[in-house]
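Before going further, learn to read the protein records used in this course. The integers have meaning only within a learned vocabulary of local backbone shapes. To see the layout at work, look at the sequence and tokens printed below.
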Amino acid sequence: MTHDDILYGRLRLWQPEEGPRVSMDTVLLASWVRRPSGRRASFVELGAATGAVSLMLALRFSGNFRIVGLEIQPDLVALAERNGRENGLEDRVSFLCGDLRDTSLLPSDAFDGLVVNPPYEEPGRGRTSPVEARSIARQGSRCSVADVAAASARLLKGRGRFFAVFRTDRMAAFIGAVLRRGLVPKRLRLIHPRPLKPSNLFLIECVKGGGEGLLVERPLFVHDEEGNYTPELLRAYEPEGLN
């Protein structure tokens, strides 16, 4: 177990040494989310792990913002709850242990926004990690992209917003899965390790029941030609995020 500074020390998180840990993907996803207009906002995170994304959003969005993080692994839920308490955010963030495929856990058509960092591999594909927590988070041993899309469409209100980060080489499968559930891509950003290198990740925002019209934002480069982090990547670690 480690106790780590996140976002230049604005958060302190307990994390397992082996298993899901905060990564650049985590920070990019939290920085990509836009709060819906209006005085109140209710969000849900699927696959919350130790609560990093939910807690980052609670820091970013003040006022009447509430988020519930759903996580299937009880030990990670316990860490997420501890992280919420120790960072003083337990009044706006809560965590629930359960399987996102269980339709009885959370009310349908209830959330303004949903955020998820889905497993990058489909169940049964790729080399399985011997660490179960990592296998669940990355190899999709408990759910598929189709499962994530189905749960998201069920939980979101009409016109609710869906935010995700995923692997670019599986973009076609991802977009196909969300479209089949009525989640229409509205905003897309490709992440590149550095200029002239192919994209390896993308950030996407979809709207439940949205109409056609997709904005493809300019690429985000992680490193410049000299190997330094770009100013824009570093913005993701600031309170205002990428938006």
Remarks:
- The chain has one domain: 2-235.
- The CA atoms of residues 79 and 171 lie 31 Å apart.
- The longest strand covers residues 156-167.
